[in-house]
Amino acid sequence: MAKRYLILEDGSAYAGEGFGAGATTSGEVISNLNLLGYQETITDQIYHNQIIIFAQPAIGNVGINHDSYESILPTAKGMVVRDVTNISTNRLSRLSLDEFLQQHNIPGISGIDTRHLIRKLRQEDGPMKGSIVDVADAHAFDQLNATVLTNRQVDQVATPKPYPNPDTGKNVVVIDFGLKHGILRQLSERRCNVTVLPWTASAQDVLNLDPDGVLLSTGPGSPLDLGEGVLDMIREVQAEIPLFAIGLGHELFALANGAELTMLPVEYHGSSHPIRRIITNDIIYATQGQGYAVVAKSIDRDRLITTYVDLINGTVQGLRHRDFPAFSVQFFADGAPGPHESRDLFDEFMEAMTARREG
Amino acid sequence: MAKVVVDAMAMQRALTRITYEIIERNKGVDDLVILGIKTRGVYLARRIASRLQQLENVTVPVGDLDVTPYRDDIEHDAQGEPEVTATNMDFSVAGKKVILVDDVLYTGRTIRAAMSAVMDLGRPKSINLAVLVDRGHRELPIRADFVGKNIPSSQRERIKVSVSEIDDRDAVEIQQA
């Protein structure tokens, strides 16, 4: 395999071997601490324009299978791994990771001391740009430093047009900010008749469909870049219809209800933090992926109740409106990849819809 | 033959949702008191109170009412009405928002008796009813404000609620008579 480099905007360069596509790409470099689920990770649109460093040292050993796509067209900018494995014994595997990355023009680099790199990035106090390049010369660094990363991530990955995912059960409108397929799978398992709307949909667009419930999806980038329109939509919809928000949706739900957000110095992507479910005072684990967090002190207690909290970094992981059946979680309740124990939030959503219709 | 219609996880979720709905409806937990109807309503009432405590860091008073045995598996005769035989609460209900909690809402006669007993003790600001299961077949104009699960049932069937505090598990089952 060809020798390639990961270079960072602080001037450091790491030599490794290329796999996947031979493209030269730039993006924000982030670390993912999950042990499982590299396919879900690289296909999750929250990683749009990002280069992902995997803490798990062996990546590629279950290939690529049809059950684990979180989107069909991945838009991550690269994978940085310790060892890449192309031997897969998984019976579902139809494609190797290497082939998959080639098809989607995503470069990978292996043989990198990912633990060292992750430790270093954790000490930074802001995002770090990086590139995967053939030659780590002054020109490559100039190119990297001149790269301006977009803040229109949601526009680039979310659906521009509505589409249905029909079934025979409850009518659910999903607002797409760059959703994970895991969300649609969980709704399908519960027979929901889903309509996915673009994130620019107005409250009227939503209410016209007479949904039993509305779900605000996960998505990439900053919730602060999406404008007031979406917050107005949330405020109007939550007063009428049970609402469940995940990830970016949670951050927007918080903003719509007067809370403030802070950008984390280092994005957190992992599933090893114990999360306390406050109402029953027990612990769950879930896949988390966040660059922003709700500021606990900014929460207006007359409007919102904190429902989940991360016990390692103290971040707010769940909120609920005091006046309406509207609730949100920062972590990925669809459990793709990762711990499945928060999937019953989808049952909670179903039951909130039932209670609303029957009550 | 028994069929589990609400498992332990679903029961936890139902109580969680009822708790949030109580907060929504009452705009908080001020002046709230919770009364469980014996036997299983008492444990459900305590679980709701402990959830409110976790969320709001406020101790909501919990009491219980003992209603004469009146079971839906025993054919009741038209003469006998359930009556509250004992109340166990160390607080006044006067001016309070009372939440009555029972496991199964059926004819409504137990709830009527409970409401009379509460009224005899003082004038509450309001009385709301929370039940884990509403199985229908009301004989009085009584309706629950908070319902864990509606289970349409035949009168020949028996709804059995188990709570882990006194039974071996949390579950709601339907048994064919």
Automatic annotation (TrEMBL), chain B:
SUPFAM superfamilies registered for this protein in UniProt: PRTase-like
Organism superkingdom: Bacteria
Phosphoribosyltransferase domain residues: 6-152
Signal peptide: none
Keyword Transferase recorded: yes
Motif PRPP-binding, chain ranges: 98-110
Gene Ontology terms for molecular function: uracil phosphoribosyltransferase activity
Pfam families attached to this UniProt entry: Pribosyltran
Subunit structure and binding partners: Homodimer and homohexamer; in equilibrium.
NCBIfam families given in the database record: PRK05205.1-4 (NF003548), PRK05205.1-5 (NF003549)
Family: Belongs to the purine/pyrimidine phosphoribosyltransferase family. PyrR subfamily.
HAMAP family registered for this protein in UniProt: PyrR
Record's protein name: Bifunctional protein PyrR
Name of encoding gene: pyrR
